[in-house]
Design goal:
With 145 residues, the protein is of the alpha+beta class. The chain has four helices and five strands, in the order E-E-H-E-H-H-E-E-H. It has a single domain, classed as Orthogonal Bundle (Arc Repressor Mutant, subunit A), CATH 1.10.10.
Length: 145
């Protein structure tokens, strides 16, 4: 699924949601397909929200597990997919000298593109949820008139 973007004068992704269901952004023209192979599921939404709570802060796996309330078998494959898509980067902490025996932590951080895609994807999911609860749906595209 690609999200269409057009040049408009909105300051935030939520303001940029239009009646036809497309996401628009103020400084981009084109298409983004960064989440093409990663469907927005409940667990992925919780992970993205955990990252967006402090977008520039590095987060280690156990911290994300607690924040998203996910088991490691769900979280780590998801982080690997996000990394493969270029939405998340990681770096290892230097080996702590005072905590002998504890392995170094792997810190994850959203990339700039990852933060943008996360915000837009969550905004679209929120819009879709509001439409479902109000009984309105996005018109089908490509049908005959």
């Amino acid at each position: 699924m690609c999200l269409r973007q057009e040049r408009v004068g909105h300051d935030s992704p939520v303001e940029a949601l239009t009646e036809n269901g497309w996401l628009t952004a103020s400084t981009y023209v084109g298409y983004i397909c960064s989440l093409l192979v990663v469907k927005l599921t409940g667990p992925l939404e919780r992970v993205l929200r955990a990252f967006l709570a402090e977008p520039s802060a590095p987060r280690y796996g156990y911290d994300l597990m607690k924040a998203a309330k996910l088991p490691s078998g769900t979280l780590y494959p998801m982080l690997a997919r996000l990394q493969d898509e270029g939405l998340v980067t990681f770096e290892w902490e230097p080996q702590p000298t005072d905590l002998a025996g504890r392995p170094a932590r792997k810190y994850y951080r959203l990339t700039g593109e990852g933060a943008r895609v996360a915000r837009l994807t969550i905004a679209q999911a929120s819009l879709d949820a509001r439409r479902r609860s109000s009984g309105t749906t996005r018109p089908a595209t490509g049908g005959t008139q």
